[in-house]
Amino acid sequence: MKAPIHKNIESQVRTITVHELKEPHFDANWHFHPHYQLFTVMEGTGKRFIGDSIHTFEPGDTVFLGPDVPHLWRSDAVYFEGNAAFSTHGIVLYFQEDFLGKDFLEKPEMLALRQLLIDSKRGIVYKGEVREHIRQELQGLLHTEGFKSILRLLALLDRLAHEQEGTPIASYGYVNTYKISETERMQKVHNYVLQHFAQEIRLSDVASLAGMSEAAFCRYFKARSNKTFIDFVNEIRIGHACKLLLEDQWTIAQIAYDSGFDSLSNFNRNFKKYIGHTPREYKGNY
């Protein structure tokens, strides 16, 4: 995954932009842009990277993102193999903070909406009834034009501003430290881990890939990801394990080794550390 690119999605004819995405896989570039974004996954599975957060996604995943938050919905490997049986489908809406003028949000009535936009700078994931409402509204906005589209968006934002079903995604105080001009160093590192997490990953190999010493690479990665490289690798492995546990086709030992852990005890220890439950408890709960 590249150091996130700055993405230009400006529309010259609409205040808000809504796209229906139907492709073999979602955009494989880790990117950010100055727009607020509502995105829902209709079809597809994979790993979601937002700020310093890593999570698996599946149909239903619905997220509201503030400006300049690096993000990527990375489709599973099978979606890149050209198999027509696997494809992705999503709906995304973009708007900028001043889409109704620079002073609109300063009105006293906009207090709750202003707080929602502040909260979105960490990313917000939605569950339950409000998630279904967002998905229905995004589908409706695909076929709504002109002033009615603005009214519909405002009504949706007003509901989100008063809902309690949203959960922050990135850690408290997260700030995008990437620059548009930064090299592709992080892209190479992320791609390498996503392709090799089921195998042994040596720090020396990854540091060499990034063109840095091991110590310099560890400092570089921690400064930009707000986590250690080991935590990053383990989070990807645990995310993969969670998906396999829910599919209920393999034993816990098989899942441990398939996810890149060298022993069942190491897997259990790390799973409890990152998820808060043992693999068996997680499987039983869900």
From TrEMBL:
<protein>
    <submittedName>
        <fullName>HTH-type transcriptional activator RhaS</fullName>
    </submittedName>
</protein>
<feature type="domain" description="HTH araC/xylS-type">
    <location>
        <begin position="187"/>
        <end position="285"/>
    </location>
</feature>
<dbReference type="InterPro" id="IPR014710">
    <property type="entry name" value="RmlC-like_jellyroll"/>
</dbReference>
<dbReference type="GO" id="GO:0043565">
    <property type="term" value="F:sequence-specific DNA binding"/>
</dbReference>
<dbReference type="Pfam" id="PF02311">
    <property type="entry name" value="AraC_binding"/>
</dbReference>
<dbReference type="GO" id="GO:0003700">
    <property type="term" value="F:DNA-binding transcription factor activity"/>
</dbReference>
<keyword id="KW-0804">Transcription</keyword>
<keyword id="KW-0805">Transcription regulation</keyword>
<dbReference type="InterPro" id="IPR020449">
    <property type="entry name" value="Tscrpt_reg_AraC-type_HTH"/>
</dbReference>
<dbReference type="InterPro" id="IPR018062">
    <property type="entry name" value="HTH_AraC-typ_CS"/>
</dbReference>
<dbReference type="InterPro" id="IPR018060">
    <property type="entry name" value="HTH_AraC"/>
</dbReference>
<dbReference type="InterPro" id="IPR011051">
    <property type="entry name" value="RmlC_Cupin_sf"/>
</dbReference>
<dbReference type="InterPro" id="IPR003313">
    <property type="entry name" value="AraC-bd"/>
</dbReference>
<dbReference type="Pfam" id="PF12833">
    <property type="entry name" value="HTH_18"/>
</dbReference>
<dbReference type="InterPro" id="IPR009057">
    <property type="entry name" value="Homeodomain-like_sf"/>
</dbReference>
<keyword id="KW-0238">DNA-binding</keyword>
